[in-house]
Design brief:
The structure is a single chain. This protein is an all-alpha fold and 98 residues long. It contains 4 helices and no strands. Helix 1 packs across helix 2, helix 1 runs antiparallel to helix 3 and helix 2 crosses helix 3. The longest helix has 28 residues. It is flat, with a radius of gyration of 15 Å. The relative contact order is 0.19.
Amino acid sequence: MKLNTNAVAKSTVITLWLIVAMTIVTELSTPFKNVLIAIGGHHWVGKSLVAIVALGIAYVLFRKTEQTNLPRNVYLVIGSVVAGGLTIFALFLWEFLK
């Protein structure tokens, strides 16, 4: 089976931003954190399980898309990783300073 790199890139970006969103909501909402704990025993494990399922679903949804320029997809993923990391850093910095 050959993976569709376009689908992998899109799925990765969607999953990455889902993780960023879950991280932010987990820090701000105890009930959401408790839901993740109920899913996996620890909120990190619950977040990981949700992310794995989301990655699989997103790939299935995008697997029929046309292959596109690989370097563009790589830059999209790297840019999302950097932006997501900065977003989480900004959240923790805000939490620290308030």
